[in-house]
TrEMBL record:
<dbReference type="InterPro" id="IPR002178">
    <property type="entry name" value="PTS_EIIA_type-2_dom"/>
</dbReference>
<keyword id="KW-0597">Phosphoprotein</keyword>
<feature type="domain" description="PTS EIIA type-2">
    <location>
        <begin position="1"/>
        <end position="146"/>
    </location>
</feature>
<dbReference type="Pfam" id="PF00359">
    <property type="entry name" value="PTS_EIIA_2"/>
</dbReference>
<keyword id="KW-0762">Sugar transport</keyword>
<dbReference type="GO" id="GO:0016740">
    <property type="term" value="F:transferase activity"/>
</dbReference>
<protein>
    <submittedName>
        <fullName>Fructose-specific PTS system, component IIA</fullName>
    </submittedName>
</protein>
<keyword id="KW-0813">Transport</keyword>
<keyword id="KW-0808">Transferase</keyword>
<dbReference type="GO" id="GO:0009401">
    <property type="term" value="P:phosphoenolpyruvate-dependent sugar phosphotransferase system"/>
</dbReference>
<keyword id="KW-0598">Phosphotransferase system</keyword>
<dbReference type="InterPro" id="IPR016152">
    <property type="entry name" value="PTrfase/Anion_transptr"/>
</dbReference>
<dbReference type="InterPro" id="IPR051541">
    <property type="entry name" value="PTS_SugarTrans_NitroReg"/>
</dbReference>
<dbReference type="InterPro" id="IPR004715">
    <property type="entry name" value="PTS_IIA_fruc"/>
</dbReference>
């Protein structure tokens, strides 16, 4: 799966987890990744009820797997202001990797995507780069390498 530069969304202005999920769903609909915004919002909220997808150091990885998702997609969003989220360090988030996975890829692509991104988020060099740049090309290269399991 290739990470696409146009799936890097900067200065996203949302004020809550719900408004973020609606923003992601609207974007996914506009890119023909899904065909039903509300279903995606509901799927993201349901997943969040199981256990928070907030990590630490301003990062979250909300994700959904469902049959209405047409293709495996990673969307990176950098928020214009941090929002509250249940995280390991109790701090708000402002960097979001949203993972959208069709059910047919549930066991393979989904786990690989989460694993590769979560592993990179443990590396300070990667997290500092992601947090401190708004350069689309730098973000695209770093995230693509992360998803391929390369540094």
């Amino acid at each position: 799966m290739k990470f696409e530069t146009n799936n890097i969304l900067l200065d996203v202005n949302v004020d809550s987890k719900l408004s973020l999920f609606k923003y992601i769903a609207s974007y996914a609909l506009s890119k023909n990744i899904i065909d039903d915004e509300q279903k995606l919002v509901d799927a993201l909220l349901e997943r969040e009820k199981e256990v928070s997808t907030g990590l630490q150091d301003s990062f979250a990885i909300p994700h959904a797997k469902a049959d209405f998702i047409k293709k495996p997609t990673v969307i990176f969003l950098k928020l214009s202001q941090p929002i509250q989220w249940e995280t390991f360090d109790g701090k708000p988030i402002s960097n979001v990797f949203a993972l959208l996975v069709p059910l047919k890829y549930e066991g393979t692509e989904h786990l690989k995507m989460i694993s590769n991104i979560a592993t990179l988020l443990l590396e300070e060099e990667f997290t500092e780069l992601i947090k401190n740049t708004k350069n689309i090309n730098v973000l695209e290269k770093s995230i693509s390498n992360a998803m391929q399991g390369e540094n």
